[in-house]
Amino acid sequence: MSEEDYYSVEWLEKASRSGIPDAQVRLAQLLLTGECVERNCEKAFRLLADASEKGSAEANFQLGEVYRSGIGTAVDLDQSFSFYQEAAARNHSGAHMVLGDMYRDGLGVPQRFDLALSHYQSASALGDFQAAFQLAKMHESGQGTKVDLVRAAELFEAAALNEVIDAQLKCAEYYRTGKVWPRNYKKAVSIYQKLASQGNAEARFHLARQCMQGHGIAKNSALILELLTASAQQQFAPAQYLLGVMYVEGNSVEADVERGLALIDEAARAEYAEAEVYLARLLLDGEIVPSDPKQAGNWLRLAAEQDNAAAYLMLGELYMVGNGLPKDVRKGFQYLLLAAEHEYAPALVRVAALYHEGRVVPRDYVQSIQLYEKAASLNLAAAQYQLGLIYQNGEGTKVDYKEAYKWLTLAGRGADQTAIHIRRERDALARKMKEEDVEVAQKYASDWWEAHREGLQAQVEAQV
User: Fold this and answer.
1) Which of 78, 89, 2, 8 is nearest to 52 (CA)?
2) Nearest Cα to 206, choosing from 168, 153, 164?
3) Which of 124, 269, 382, 444 is at 20 to 30 A from 304, Cα to Cα?
4) Per-residue DSSP letters for 385-428?
5) Minimal CA–CA distance to 440: which of 391, 398, 403?
6) What is the chain's percent helix, strand, coil content, to nearest 5?
7) Using CA atoms, how far apart are residues 321 and 312, in angstroms rounded to an integer?
8) Which residues of the chain have pLDDT under 50?
9) How does DSSP assign 132-154, residue by residue?
């Protein structure tokens, strides 16, 4: 049977009367949509029911689709689920895929990640590479199974080789960050270039970011602008935000505040949390736009609804002082804790300082030091500096000049005036120490940096 015959309505009518299930299903699809024939839902249902009785998995799947979407009938999720199950029992990969989605998202059924995983596995085994992609995401996140990044990478790669674009983007991410495979910027860029040439907005954005960093591709301001502009025009919110910031700040482009704000506003209205937080900062600062703490609070609440750590921190500060929001120290502190729970370094330092001061909450030196150490492990110089002072002065712990010297050395690694001042403090401390203790402390600092350098670089890469 030729493709032309298959799609011939006349042939489909004849084959359906002869009881050929494939023809009945195809004709039913046309009748439901009114494509090439007069719409007739009643006839379509009769054809699908007959094909289903003959064992057609596709007929069961289409009945599931009809009851889920309400085409030609009332929406009935129970009926839909029942037909999907029948189709899945007949090894219909699409039905397994839909059931996986339903269990994953709790749509019409209790949320069950284990059952979602099982259905994705079945669909993947039947050759559905979209299912393989979803399965990879579950192994990556640990939903329904333990986290297994190696297995996730294998599945992403298999799906990518079969032209699943989201899987190709994931492979590029893994190469870019070194998350599983050895970091390989050139391979990441190669994938982004291929997808960008096909008009993929996300690939254009990431290729621009790689170009900005000079990772796997030479820095090129003109190309960056071209890629971000194209991606932003496709309504890709991260590109709108980044391009907007470039225009507002005059970074690599001629400053155009009005244009930049319009782009950032578009991204914020698309619920991109970074844009919402940026607008809040501008509204609080009051230099580029008129100061409006109340509106800043509105943007921050929207970003906080998306579990954004920076928004939690800023909301906490606003509530603590009553700026644009009713003063509520307890509520403010809870927001600060939420930000700190995300291991957001500025929040860790802020909460650590509050525990150290003992004004908003009871003084707790142990908790304070733990939070400072966590922020210091994220290479936040402010936390490293505070640890240096704590060990130098013995605040909540015994005096330990070697530890103090280590943290002051790490805090003073920069080239700015603050870092220069910290190094001077460290050198003043060294004059109180024995020469051999200074050498030990220097080794402490060197060993710490070597132990953390790779992880810190991975953190930076994950944000690019």
Assistant:
1) 89
2) 168
3) 382
4) HHHHHHHHHTSSS---HHHHHHHHHHHT-SSSHHHHHHHHHHHH
5) 403
6) 75, 0, 25
7) 15
8) 1-2, 5-6, 460, 462-464
9) HHHHHHHHHHTSSS---HHHHHH
Q: Residue 19 gets which letter from DSSP?
A: T
- Check: CB of residue 409 under 8 Å from CB of residue 445: yes
Residue type, 330: R
The tokens for 15 are: 């084959």
* Residues 178-196 pLDDT 10s: 989 999 999 999 999 999 9
| Residue closest to 275 by CA, chosen among 311, 249, 229 | 311
Pick the closest to residue 161 from 136, 186, 184 (CA basis): 136
Residue 383 near residue 349, CB atoms below 8 Å: yes
What long-range pairs does 159-163 form, CB within 8 A, spacing at least 24?
159/129, 159/130, 159/132, 159/133, 162/129, 162/132, 163/129
Note the pLDDT of residue 35: 80
- Tokens for 182? 């050895």
Name residues whose C-beta falls within 8 Å of residue 97's C-beta, 6 or more positions apart in sequence: 119, 120, 123, 128, 130, 131, 134
Comparing C-alpha atoms, which of 137, 136, 140, 133 is closest to residue 164? 133
Residues 6+ apart with CB under 8 A from 318: 293, 296, 297, 300, 324, 325, 332
Assign residue 163 a region: left if phi > 0, alpha if psi is -120 to 50, beta otherwise? left
What are the b/e assignments for 222-237, b being 16+ CB within 10 Å?
eebbebbbbbbeeebb
Tokens of residue 114, six digits = 């284990």
C-alpha angle 117-84-146 in degrees, rounded to nearest 5: 5
